[in-house]
Specification:
The chain is an alpha+beta fold. The longest helix has 56 residues. The protein has two domains: 49 residues, no CATH class; 148 residues, Sandwich (Immunoglobulin-like), CATH 2.60.40. β1 and β2 form a beta hairpin. It contains six helices and eight strands. It has a four-stranded antiparallel sheet, with helices on one face.
């Protein structure tokens, strides 16, 4: 109870308690010396507040300077803040461009590595097929030479795969490619390979895939076609070789 009474002393001095609380507090103060001392301290503080001077308004110039430092009215942006905002926007934009450039570089590098891996895998398949064909006693090699283009065509009559080695083919524009055609006895032409001739290589080795055993193929030819290939020969012929001429 004493603690609750002491909490009322400050309000008592300021006259901020109701009559019933006032009666209880004054009855307690008659017999409690500690609360009498605390009340005297509260009264001293209250008297000090009464003797404070009247509030003095600040100098208008000081107020204007403070207002300027604290913040400007809505809709007014100082030149320094505007310049800082533009600099921040430029910095963020620069970081965005840098981020895009780094990611574009990584994407290009990754794509180049993927292509390089695909090329190595394809070349490995060609080499393995060539070794396998060389191990068969019935394997044949058709050697050809037409003007500046020469090479070999290695195959086994019962297999539907062969290895085509060629040199002297000039590089083509990016939207064109060489297409190798296999000609069967009935004159049907089937696509056996679609390839390019890179400038960095003296010759290329291509894996040829046939829909029929190569012993049934009479000849093959190479034409220039669109980059994605054609369902049948449409471009100029650059090479034609007989491998199983009919009797």
């Amino acid at each position: 109870m004493d603690h609750e009474i002491q909490q009322l002393l400050g309000a008592y001095v300021l006259g901020a308690i109701d009559p019933e609380e006032r009666k209880l507090l004054e009855a307690h103060l008659e017999n409690c010396q500690a609360c009498q001392v605390a009340l005297a301290e509260y009264q001293q503080v209250g008297e000090g507040l009464l003797h404070l001077g009247a509030p003095v308004p600040p100098d208008p110039r000081l107020r204007a300077r403070l207002a300027t430092r604290i913040g400007e009215p809505e809709g007014i942006v100082p030149a320094r803040r505007l310049a800082l905002g533009r600099a921040l926007q430029l910095a963020i934009g620069g970081l965005g461009v840098l981020w895009l450039a780094v990611n574009a570089g990584l994407f290009i590098e990754t794509r180049a590595l993927n292509r390089r891996g695909e090329d190595l895998l394809a070349q490995q398949q060609v080499s393995q097929t060539a070794l396998a064909l060389a191990s068969y006693s019935n394997s044949k090699t058709a050697v050809f030479q037409e003007q500046s283009i020469g090479g070999t065509f290695v195959y086994e009559g019962s297999f539907p795969v062969a290895v085509f080695n060629v040199w002297g083919l000039p590089p083509l524009p990016k939207d064109q490619a060489y297409q190798l055609w296999l000609v069967s006895a009935d004159g049907t032409r089937s696509s056996g390979a679609l390839f390019t001739a890179p400038e960095s290589q003296d010759f290329v080795s291509i894996l040829v895939r046939s829909p029929i055993p190569l012993g049934e193929v009479l000849s093959f030819g190479v034409t220039i076609e669109p980059g994605g290939g054609s369902p049948e020969p449409t471009g100029p012929r650059v090479l034609g070789v007989d491998i199983n001429p009919s009797p």
